[in-house]
Amino acid sequence: MPAVGQKWLRRLGYVGAAGAGAFVVDNQLCYSSGLRSLRVVKTGLYLLYQYKVVWTPENSSEVNRNVARAITETLRANEGMYVKFGQQLSTMGHVLPQEYQEELRDLFDNASMYDSQLIKDTIVREIGVPLDQVFEWFEDEPIASASVAQVHRARLKDGGGDVAVKIQKPNVSFQITIDFAMAFLVLLVVEKAFSIPMLWSYSFTVERFKSECDFTVEAENALRAKKLLHDAYGDAIYVPEVHTDLCTKKVIVTEWIHDAVKIDDKDGLHGLRAPLDKVLHLAVGVWAHQIFSSGFVHCDPHPGNLLVRRNPKAKPLKPIPEGATMETVSVPASEPARAGAVPADTGDLGGGGCPLGFDKMFAEAKTAKPAEKDVVVRRAQPPPGKVEDIQLVLIDHGLYIDLPDVVREDYAKFWCSMILADRHELEAMTKKWGMSDADFFASMTQMKPYQAKQGISQILDTHKNLHLTKEDMAKIHMKIKEKLVTVLQDTESFPKELLFVGRALNYIRAHNWCHGSLVNRVRVLGIEASKGLRDREYYRFHFTLRVLQVLEFVKQRASPLWSLLLYVLPQTAASHLARFGMALDAAPEVMADV
Questions:
Q1: CA 575 → CA 217, 280, 424, distances in Å?
Q2: Residues 82, 215, 230, 383, Cα dihedral to 10°
Q3: 326-332 and 144-145: which strand pairing?
Q4: Which residues pair with residue 326 across a beta bridge?
Q5: Cα(first)–Cα(last) distance of the chain, in Å?
Q6: Burial of 502 by CB count in 10 Å (0-12 exposed, 13-18 middle, 19+ buried)?
Q7: Closest CA to 270 of 362, 358, 380, 196
Q8: Nearest-CA neighbor of 394 among 468, 309, 337, 512?
Q9: What burial class does residue 9 get, using C-beta atoms within 10 Å of its C-beta: 0-12 exposed, 13-18 middle, 19+ buried?
Q10: What is the per-residue pLDDT across 166-218, written as a single tens digit (0 to 9) for each?
Q11: How far apart are the C-alpha atoms of 149 and 250, rounded to whole Å?
Q12: Which residues, 6 or more positions from 118, have their beta carbon under 8 angstroms from its beta carbon?
């Protein structure tokens, strides 16, 4: 072989050996951080190519689907904090196209699990004593695995009871710095390529996620939330006990909760005989209280973190009596006898289960047909339960926002202004936050097209047509496309805490949707917001609310009397009512439902 050929062959060998060595080091010592970063770069380049070269209005859906699938595959393969980023994206159904929502929904499932011996070694290293000195037994198989931690069940010695032991995965502390650096790079590229402000909230978001990885912070959050919620709701809300003597930055030990079901588990709630509307009303009210009154907000209330159980003080459930009323439901064909179900001989009814993601949260759930693999069955309908017999359990207290008083009060004013359609106050608040369009931000907040002229009619009906239509979604997406670049005039003025408050409200809204939107959440949030106002403003809100409710009723149901007001009310009163979206010279309109 010529000398030149041998030279290049040696060079290729050196490169191959170096690459193989780098791969081994990256895989064995660096938890594949280099490979994960390469995946991000590859996906970022693919995103730019698709939207800058391939995208046209005609193929937009296909492009959205391809990019969303590539992003989801990268997030799932990289795991760790990337899953956190994906879960944050999955709650932005009002911003992202439908294709993104459909692809991102599965990020809630299938997190990898580490070997039990490695996990045990981590616990011993953290608490400083052998496991058999602390636990009577410790289950090797984890009962849950999330993006940054996995949970094992154990029992404390000396009658300490069953506990949940949450351990940070070994790779997280090494990967987190590189992950955040890659997130910064991706956001920078997107901001420069599409002229959309992306980096303005980066530092704040990173700080929140970093604090979530410190389990001593989670323990402190749980203790504080337990006191605040017990003071406000008594036994209706429960936060598990924390064994602070066993908590470190990477390990937290809490009370094990028996016989609880996720808030989206329809069959489980049915078995508890939980009054769904009251349970959902309580859940919405709890988060409204946190946001507008205490200011200490649990920002990760996904279904796995919001559980429902029988109140330990409630009487035991009685068997369903013979001859009980039958109800028709839809369950998977593989489990036709679940929850006492028997095949039905009636026609199809709605209700094909509840997705963990948010891909269909805007759909018309009440008119949805059962999923393809579902069957319609009939089962015994138990006697209705009492909400006092049910208890909401909040777990996983790693991600909290502590709202400054000025932000909490301003946000309460903003919600009250939306309810009253007080355009003057709405525009004043959004201007203070550096927002150029009050209606746009109100639409983003309520997750429905907002128009001040609807006024008080938004909260008059509590159960009628609570779902967004496709036309509503189209309006929102069109507004977002037109205004997203310009709506934030001053990003430094916008309270970044509201980003995480919005995340929490998205989850709560999804739980309500999952059960058919039984609760008028806008009404609940508006009334709770008024409790966060000062006394004078609180009474003013409720007085104005009652007056506008009466006038709206007259306008809709008694047109002659409304016409009489055109001549009776002085001009000053007419101008004041116009401020609340009730122009006296306008013809009565059909009430808009929430």
A1: 52, 39, 12
A2: 50
A3: unpaired
A4: 380
A5: 80
A6: middle
A7: 380
A8: 309
A9: exposed
A10: 999 887 877 788 888 888 888 888 777 777 777 888 888 889 888 989 999 99
A11: 9
A12: 170
Up-side HSE of residue 397: CA atoms within 13 Å toward CB? 25
Per-residue tokens: 65: 């689907």
β-strands 135-138, 149-156 pairing: antiparallel
Report CA 267 to chain centroid distance, whole Å: 22
Beta bridge partners of 216: none
Q: Which of 354, 349, 391 is nearest to 366 (CA)?
A: 349
The CA distance from 585 to 563, in Å, is 9
126, pLDDT greater than 60: yes
Helices marked H in 53-171 — which ranges? Answer: 60-78, 81-90, 98-104, 116-127
SS3 of 325, please?
A: coil
What is the three-class DSSP state of 384? coil
pLDDT tens string 477-497: 555 655 665 656 567 788 999
pLDDT for residue 5: 64
Backbone phi, then psi, for 558, in 5-degree steps? -140, 70
Q: Rounded to 5 degrees, what are φ and ψ at 559?
A: -60, -40
Contact 311, 389 (CB under 8 A): yes
| Side chain identity at residue 568, one-letter code | V
Contact 343, 405 (CB under 8 A): no
**pLDDT > 70 in the chain, percent:** 66
Report the alpha-carbon angle 312-317-318, nearest 5. Answer: 155
| Number of residues assigned to the chain | 594
Indicate the range of 19-28, 356-365, 471-480 predicted with least confidence.
356-365
**Global confidence as pTM:** 0.74
* Paired sense of beta strands 400-402 and 341-343, if any: unpaired
Q: Which two tokens stand for residue 392?
A: 């909401």
Are the beta carbons of 141 and 153 closer than 8 angstroms? no
* Residue 312 buriedness (CB in 10 A; 0-12 / 13-18 / 19+): exposed
Structure confidence at residue 361 (pLDDT) = 30
pLDDT band (50, 70, 90) for residue 440: confident
Amino acid at 521: R
Give the single-character DSSP code of 314.
S
Q: Minimum mean pLDDT among 64-73, 92-101, 339-348: which range?
A: 339-348
DSSP sequence for 504-560 = HHHHHHHHHHHTT--S-HHHHHHHHHHHTS-HHHHHHHHHHHHHHHHHHHHHHH-HH
| Residues 339, 275: Cα–Cα separation, whole Å | 17
